Amino acid sequence: MSSTKTRRRIVPAAAENGDTADKQDQLLLSSAICNGEDLGSFVRKAFASGKPETLLHHLKHFTKSKESEIEDVCRAHYQDFIVAVDDLRSLLSDVDSLKSSLSNSNNKLQNVAVPLLTSLDAYVEAKNKCSNIALAINSLNTCVQLMELCSRANFHLTKNNFYMALKCLDSIETNFQDKTPSTTLKRMLEKQIPAIRAHIERKVSKEFGDWLVEIRIVSRNLGQLAIGQASAARQREEELRIKQRQAEEQSRLSLRDCVYALEEEEDDEIDGVVDGSNGVNGISGFDLTPLYRAYHIHQTLGLEDRFKQYYFENRKLQLTSDFQVSSMTPFLESHQTFFAQIAGFFIVEDRVLRTGGGLISKMEVENLWDTAVSKMCSVLEDQFSRMQTANHLLLIKDYVSLLGVTLRRFGYPIDALLDVLSKHRDKYHDLLLSDCRKQFAEALAADKFEQMYMKKEYEYSMNVLSFQIQTSNIMPAFPYVAPFSSTVPDCCRIVRSFIEDSVSFMSYGGQLEFFDVVKKYLDRLLTEVLDGALLKVINSSISGVTQAMQMAANMAVFERACDFFFRHAAQLSGIPLRIAERGRRQFPLIKARDAAEETLSGLLKQKVDGFLSLIENVNWMADEPPQGGNEYANEVIIFLETLVSTAQQVLPVQVLKRVLQDVLTHISEMIVGALHGESVKRFNINAIMGLDVDVRLLESFAENQAPLMSEAEASQLKSGLAESRQMVNLLLSNHPENFLNPVIRERSYNALDYRKVVAISEKLKDQSDRLFGSFGTRGAKQNPKKKSLDALIKRLKDVN
């Protein structure tokens, strides 16, 4: 491919002043040709001016001028060529001389260097042999070291020392595999190293799988052991509380000569079993070595993340399997195993979390725990909803609370479990109340309402002192006849058991102060269950005075027992007695007590009514008042004295006073009722004097009870005869019209009904009203008392 040289642009020289235009055109044309420009403009101009000959002349002139330049250039180049040829001829002769000189020198060199080259070839050959021998020695040394590592790896494999075997394999790969001169060895290594690693992984995985199977059994035993420790610790706390309560009770009784010391037991051994300070891992078989070995081997194999995931998934599957509740076995029988398995699982996971070097994360353990709590809450909700026995529910609650105490030591939150227990508090107590209702019914049905007979001191302690229902701190002589029947200690035992069960359910449930809750359910037990059972028995089974008296005596003892119940509940709840006594309420069995006293009073009134029927034999128009009282009054007095002599052995003074006052009030009402009744048409003042004697006899009976009671109580007992006494006083008064005076009436006749006063006063017959008596007294002055009584009757009728 030829290239054209770029021509230098020729610029026409400026025309001199004397040059013609023709000369100027010639210069322009020469310049354009030299510059290789288009000559079309010159041709068009020449033809346009009609002078093409000028253009042709100029072209010819330009051609001639260039021919002379060519000749000059050729002449100059020819001279140079001749000079160069001469130089080449002289150089050729010099080259010939140099060639002969070089040939001579080469011959001399060949003659001298041939022996040296022979020696050099021998040296190079010897050196190559030495290098080959050294390379062979190095290869042999490498092979020897490699075989030693292989032998060491095989030894570790036979000893199941997989970590050292893997280290040998890593050293082989790093230092020898690429440098091994033997292709056979290299192929062997490339084949066997992955196979050995796969073998180690299988062996370790098998050991880990065996550990997963074994750890389930170990977890169950570990959970049972840990919960057993929590139970033992709780038992020690209960014993300390009992000692404290005994000290408080003796302090309350001013027994200040006793010295108490709390014995501390060493808990290090117990804590060490769970914490792992007494051995390799705390409990026989609780060995995490296979797990950590597998984890370490997988770390060495570069499979750490895969093993973590594998471990977590397998443990999660195990936990899910632990959640299965057998439908063939009652939950009451399997709940300990169920919860112990879960407790052991999380004790193991806590150890792995703390010592596993990141094998499982805290978040993963928390997720497993959240799942477990949710499942346990679901199982508890389901099982509690089916249970109809309070004792079963309490057993499971106690074990769950022990589970919570155990796992709380390891930092697991248990609030959700406690919430489930608290949620079923009402159901538990409802079941407990139902059980107590049945027990009360059985105890009351078995009672013969006879005073208890105690032969030994232990019987007295068991039936009296244990419930603090004694009336004196002095030990009585034996045999001892108690003022109550077997119902009292039997019911007290049921109530005490209820309190202990209630406190047991409320204890360790996350609520520190639960006395108010226990007190609420205790109130329900006493006011609804026990009071109702007693009312039922009183209304349906009490048929005699002896039974009614015994029931009334029992109610008085129950009043002291109720104080003990609330103090006992306060002590078990950890509440000081002074605080518990501040909120004391009225007697919770007041309905049953009132019903028992009313029943006793009613039966006594029936007995009294039998004697009061003799009031029909009273001579209402007697000529003289009876000196020793009427027959009915004497019979009633004998009955009441017999009653008091018997009742004071059984009934407390206050109960006896209330019953006697009720009976005396009834007697008083019956006396007034007899005067007011239809059977008595008329009576005279002598009959009223006889009633006055009767009332004085009854009042004397009431006053004679002062040694048994206080004088104030005897006076209050006497007030039961107020209506009959005031009626007799009014009829015997010389100024009966004073009844109309409000002040005197309020002071002396406040128990009288004015309607009865009118009716009875109209029946009073004066001595002057005898048959034919008016003939002898006609014109005589009217009796002032009769006149006052008539005025009273008239005024009262007007008011009516």
From TrEMBL:
<dbReference type="GO" id="GO:0006886">
    <property type="term" value="P:intracellular protein transport"/>
</dbReference>
<comment type="function">
    <text>Component of the exocyst complex involved in the docking of exocytic vesicles with fusion sites on the plasma membrane during regulated or polarized secretion. Involved in polarized cell growth and organ morphogenesis. During cytokinesis, involved in cell plate initiation, cell plate maturation and formation of new primary cell wall.</text>
</comment>
<dbReference type="InterPro" id="IPR042045">
    <property type="entry name" value="EXOC6/Sec15_C_dom1"/>
</dbReference>
<dbReference type="GO" id="GO:0090522">
    <property type="term" value="P:vesicle tethering involved in exocytosis"/>
</dbReference>
<dbReference type="InterPro" id="IPR048359">
    <property type="entry name" value="EXOC6_Sec15_N"/>
</dbReference>
<dbReference type="Pfam" id="PF04091">
    <property type="entry name" value="Sec15_C"/>
</dbReference>
<dbReference type="GO" id="GO:0005829">
    <property type="term" value="C:cytosol"/>
</dbReference>
<keyword id="KW-0963">Cytoplasm</keyword>
<dbReference type="InterPro" id="IPR046361">
    <property type="entry name" value="EXOC6/Sec15_C"/>
</dbReference>
<comment type="similarity">
    <text>Belongs to the SEC15 family.</text>
</comment>
<dbReference type="GO" id="GO:0009860">
    <property type="term" value="P:pollen tube growth"/>
</dbReference>
<keyword id="KW-0268">Exocytosis</keyword>
<dbReference type="InterPro" id="IPR007225">
    <property type="entry name" value="EXOC6/Sec15"/>
</dbReference>
<feature type="domain" description="Exocyst complex component EXOC6/Sec15 N-terminal">
    <location>
        <begin position="58"/>
        <end position="227"/>
    </location>
</feature>
<keyword id="KW-0813">Transport</keyword>
<dbReference type="GO" id="GO:0016020">
    <property type="term" value="C:membrane"/>
</dbReference>
<protein>
    <recommendedName>
        <fullName>Exocyst complex component</fullName>
    </recommendedName>
</protein>
<dbReference type="Pfam" id="PF20651">
    <property type="entry name" value="EXOC6_Sec15_N"/>
</dbReference>
<dbReference type="GO" id="GO:0000145">
    <property type="term" value="C:exocyst"/>
</dbReference>
<dbReference type="InterPro" id="IPR042044">
    <property type="entry name" value="EXOC6PINT-1/Sec15/Tip20_C_dom2"/>
</dbReference>
<dbReference type="GO" id="GO:0009846">
    <property type="term" value="P:pollen germination"/>
</dbReference>
<feature type="domain" description="Exocyst complex subunit EXOC6/Sec15 C-terminal">
    <location>
        <begin position="417"/>
        <end position="763"/>
    </location>
</feature>
<dbReference type="GO" id="GO:0060321">
    <property type="term" value="P:acceptance of pollen"/>
</dbReference>
<dbReference type="GO" id="GO:0006893">
    <property type="term" value="P:Golgi to plasma membrane transport"/>
</dbReference>
